[in-house]
Amino acid sequence: MNPPPQHIAIIMDGNGRWAQHKGLPRIVGHQHGVEAADAIVTTAREFGIPYLTLFAFSDENWGRPREEVEQLMQLLADFLRTKRDKMIANGVRLATIGETDRLPVTVQHSLAETIEATAAGTSLTLILALSYGARAEICRAVRRAMTAGISEITPDQLSAALDTAAYPDPDLLIRTSGEYRISNYLLWQLAYTELYFTDILWPDFSPEHLREAIAAYQRRERRFGRVTA
Ligand code: IPE
Ligand code: IPE
Ligand code: MG
Fold first, then answer.
1. pLDDT category, 214, cuts 50, 70, 90?
2. Do the beta carbons of residue 95 and residue 127 sit within 8 Å?
3. Would you give the end-to-end CA distance of the chain in angstroms?
4. How far does the centroid of ligand 3 lie from the alpha carbon of residue 202, in Å?
5. 178 CA distance to ligand 3 centroid (A)?
6. Which domains, from first to last, does the chain contain?
7. Predicted confidence band of residue 76 (pLDDT cuts 50, 70, 90)
8. Does any ligand 2 atom lie closer than 6 A to the CB of residue 181?
9. DSSP of 75-109
């Protein structure tokens, strides 16, 4: 049995289809998706998982209809406002990866305030991937390394220049909604991550589903290219 994962990364997918199946607008799916995310943060903390990275908005998601992008930004602002006290009370520390300077200024301010207000949290680090794309992140890292005068870049140096420099690589990646792809998420960091796909649509992903995913992970044999002893 593996010990529980230290870092879980999730691609929260299927909000739109969840709403569509119910004959509701996509935004209603996103609203329920936020509640599912809140419950999963609480559960991850209860399970003693130190790091949780949630894919909340991708570089590519900027290409969605303007109305949907605006609604998602509003939901993000609402999430930060309504969950801040709970995060503080639960020792959840907020962080972000991605090009957050592309987000609306009001959202940037809410993020900065919440990051500061939760900075002393020690039970769970919640990392929101916002305006995040892994290829762009890797390019930024290479540019940072070049600016720092590093010419012969090593894997450790590249890792240290990524947005995720302060966090361990994910042990477990979960993607909901029955899609089997990575969608430009954490390409470098997922090199040896265990992948877990489920057909559950994100708004239906419950604490019990998280427990199942962790249990499946704990049964896996992680060999890292070696042979079993
Ligand atoms: C995931 O749900 C949330 C975001 C990408 C912001 P989707 O909106 O991608 O839902 P589907 O995949 O269309 O069902
Ligand atoms: C990935 O989901 C991004 C997020 C969950 C935020 P998408 O729905 O955007 O990915 P694709 O388009 O199915 O690859
Ligand atoms: Mg999707």
1. very high
2. yes
3. 14
4. 10
5. 10
6. 7-133+170-219 (3.40.1180.10)
7. very high
8. yes
9. HHHHHHHHHHHHHHHHTEEEEEES-GGGS-HHHHH
- Give me the percent of the chain exceeding a pLDDT of 70: 100
Which protein residues touch ligand 1 with a CB less than 6 Å away?
Answer: 12-17, 57, 61, 72, 177
CA distances to 37, 47, 174, 204, 219 from 214, rounded to whole Å, are 16, 10, 10, 17, 9
Q: What mean pLDDT value characterizes the chain?
A: 97
Buried b (16+ CB within 10 A) or exposed e, 189-224: bbeebbebbbebbbbbbeeebbeebbeebeeeeeee
Which atom from ligand 1 is nearest to the alpha carbon of 56? 6
The finding on whether 61 has its CB within 6 A of some atom of ligand 2 is yes
Q: Amino acid identity of 195? A: L
Q: Indicate whether residue 201 lines ligand 2 (CB < 6 A).
A: no
CA distance linking residue 181 with residue 200, whole number of Å: 15
Looking at residue 229, its pLDDT comes to: 73
Q: Which ligand 1 atom sits closest to the C-alpha of 72? A: 6
**171 DSSP 8-state letter:** S
This prediction's pTM: 0.98
Of 22, 37, 203, the C-alpha closest to 130 is: 37
User: Residue 97 in contact with residue 59, Cβ under 8 Å?
Assistant: no
